[in-house]
Structure formats: C-alpha cells, structure tokens
Known about the structure:
Helix content: 10-25%
Mean pLDDT: 92
Order of helices and strands: EEHHEEE
Shape: globular
Largest sheet: 5 strands, mixed
CATH class: Mainly Beta
Strand order of the largest sheet: 1-2-3-4-5
Strand content: 35-45%
Amino acid sequence: xxxxxxxxxxxxxxxxxxxxxxxxxxxxxxxxxxxxxxxxxxxxxxxxxxxxxxxxxxxxxxxxxxxxxxxxxxxxxxxxxxxxxx
Length: 86
C-alpha cells in the first residue's frame, strides 16, 4: 500500500538553535514493516509534512495482523526522495 498521510502526526519538535529543528512523528498502518521501510514509502510526506534529515518516525505497523513497532530516522532527503533507516 501507500503512505496514509493522515496517519502521520507530528507530536514534538526539538530546537537545536538557529532554526535548525528536528521533529518526531507517530505513524500507524496496516502495512508490513518491510513495506514501510522500503525505498520511497515516505516520499509524499517530504513536502506535505516537511520531513527532513534527522526527523524521527515512531511506527505501529501491521496493526490488523501481528502488530509491531518501528523506530525510524530520516537519513536523507534528496529532491522528492525520502530515505529512512531503523
């Protein structure tokens, strides 16, 4: 499936000074962990949520099956591509 942008919510901002901030998000989905961590999954959130390098995404995945948690960090944003790692 694709990212459900309405299920991605920012809940905290850490100010590192001089307008340099990182944000923390929560995300819940029926998608499997492998789908959520695949290349391009969070691309739509780049512009809509202003995702940037260093942002954290705390995920609940496979919520309709065997729920699991993921703790992701945005490692790169190049053009419209968002890369995350656990």
